[in-house]
Amino acid sequence: MSYYCNGLNFDATVEDIVRAAREFGQRMREMGREFGRGPEGHDFRGSFHFYPPANIFKTRDGSLALEFDLSGIDPDGLRIEFQGDYLVLSAKSGTRGAEAGENGYYRRSFRPRDIDRQKYYVPADEYLQDQSRATFKNGALTIVVPPSENERAGIKITIEKEGA
After folding, report:
1. So what's the pLDDT on residue 104?
2. pLDDT in tens, 127-155
3. What does DSSP assign to residue 1?
4. Which backbone phi and psi does 125 adopt, to 5 degrees?
5. CA dihedral 56, 50, 86, 114 (to 10 degrees)
6. Which has the minimum average pLDDT: 59-68, 70-79, 81-90?
7. pTM for the model
8. Domain range summary for the chain, segments of one domain joined by +
9. Burial annotation 19-54 (CB, 10 A radius, 16+ → b, else e)
10. Which of 61, 69, 73, 136 can bridge 53 by disulfide, Cβ–Cβ 3.0-4.6 Å?
11. Exposed, middle or buried by CB within 10 Å (0-12, 13-18, 19+), for 55?
């Protein structure tokens, strides 16, 4: 039994919609196989988190603080530099974790990764980039960038009253 309204077959219309949705889903999966891969074949589909994990905040004195969790990263492989208005972080992971041994891992959910030129916006006109300090302790990197003395102040606009 089919349902009709004003000569339109609803069953056929629903079947057309379902078929189109399936075809669309299949095409998206095919595109994902082609375009969902990054350098070295890394699959980015479904990985909506940032690496390395970071906390970025202003301190009480107006400095910009950037904290990074770099567990498993060799401190000798870290490179931090400013390029214009950006702090650029690069790092090479020292090891790929403890060796698995002959029986393999029982569980492996932590894999340090290399960081290739990760950029963070630090405007040069608001912060003294050349006076930045960085400390690395227990796998945590902290970078503090002091504020510029001429940090942009608001521009006051004088209001003129007409007819006064």
Report:
1. 66
2. 999 999 999 998 889 999 999 876 555 66
3. -
4. -80, -10
5. 120
6. 70-79
7. 0.57
8. 4-35, 54-97+110-145
9. eeeeeeeeeeeeeeeeeeeeeeeeeeeeeeeeebeb
10. 69
11. exposed
